[in-house]
Amino acid sequence: ASVESGEGSLVITDTAVTRLREIAGEGEEAWLRVSVEGGGCSGFQYKLDLEEGELSMGEDDVMVERDGAKVLVDQTSLEYLQGATVDYHVELIRAGCRITANPKAEGGCSCGASFNIKLDL
Known about the structure:
Blueprint: E1 2-4, E2 10-12, H1 14-25, E3 30-38, E4 44-52, E5 61-66, E6 69-74, H2 75-81, E7 84-90, E8 95-100, E9 105-106, E10 114-117
């Protein structure tokens, strides 16, 4: 388990910081867990879960913290997310956190939930 600033791992936008701090301020400690799983319509998919309670980090977890906002990601998923941005957006039909500007991704679905891995040949 380790703690990093956003630079070089994940970037957390101002809107995501604000929203995560609001959620954490409403009760117990809260943080966002981000992971990458196989599946989705493009081969890999992002999974974002809000977790609350007592923070327990696994051996391979990395915490990215910015101004009190905490994002946890496992080391394997971080390899697919290095340099990506965690954002909070509001639309007419939904609001939530999302992953954007992932330099490791190529293509993907229109909803932004799944992606192809960019292969460096």
